[in-house]
Write a structure and sequence with these properties.
Arc Repressor Mutant, subunit A, flat, Dna Ligase, domain 1, 41% helix, three-stranded mixed sheet, 23% strand, alpha+beta, homodimer, DNA-binding, three-stranded antiparallel sheet
DNA sequence: AATAAATTTAGAATAATTCTAAAAAGAGAA
DNA sequence: TTCTCTTTTTAGAATTATTCTAAATTTATT
């Protein structure tokens, strides 16, 4: 583990907020101002490949990197914002249904976040 | 609904295989050879916004467009291939846990597909 | 120290998607 | 019809996210 890999792991795992590669990059620059973008991508891929961080893709926005600690995501269909939520674990149920092992699962729930719902209530015309 | 929108809807909804925008484009060109790429993106976004097709994002590969008919996805951690699978419906359970309504949910299960497992068994060195 | 292997770097390249502004197509209303 | 208005399409440029490349640097091994 290089110092960069270690630091990137720290950044992702101590953040509550599923960072984009760009955001990890700017956090890392606070510690190592000369680091390059490619190093961030290299190490995020390495950590993800090793299962030490989670990668979450959201339709229409860059991938995010997240702690591996079990949790699910609410995704706003209007603004795309991600919110953590902790729901009943599905591992056993999925194992039973699939009849075999798997790495992990990713559950996203699409909704309208309170902010966007508020906006739409004020201006119903722009509703989709 | 324009002829393009209608045709794109048909293409996505009659395919079994979560097409990329690129793939939808080449299907559409079979019917309307002069159509442009932007039309495909415009209409996919429109149909998705209206909830008439599903959009599935997979880490590290372009978004895919899919029938809205309820099903879940297995994602191979090695080759990225998507496979449809039909698991127990979570709607009621999620409503209860979240205490409210939502649009839809998306469940992806990460595993190693039979082909990649086979390859790894033959050449264990390259295992990650 | 010398050699080899892995990592980092800057910048170019690629890929997916959106944007732009003009052209074309539809859809009423006169 | 013809005029006007709105929507959609188009080609190509622009943007964004990410990967690739090849040289330089760092780390590990002999």
């Amino acid at each position: 583990m290089t110092k960069y890999e270690k630091q990137i792991y720290e950044i992702v795992n101590s953040s509550q907020s599923h960072l984009t590669a760009e955001q990890v990059f700017s956090e890392l620059k606070k510690v190592y101002p000369a680091v390059s973008q490619a190093t961030v991508y290299n190490n995020l891929n390495k950590l993800y490949g090793a299962g030490r961080i989670r990668r979450v893709s959201v339709e229409g926005s860059p991938d995010r990197y997240d702690r591996t600690v079990k949790h699910d995501h609410l995704v706003c269909r209007r603004c795309g914002r991600l919110t953590d939520v902790c729901l009943e674990d599905l591992t056993d149920s999925l194992k039973r249904q699939l009849g075999g092992e798997f790495f992990s699962y990713d559950l996203k729930i699409f909704y309208i976040c309170p902010e966007c719902r508020e906006k739409e209530a004020q201006n119903p015309a722009r509703q989709q």
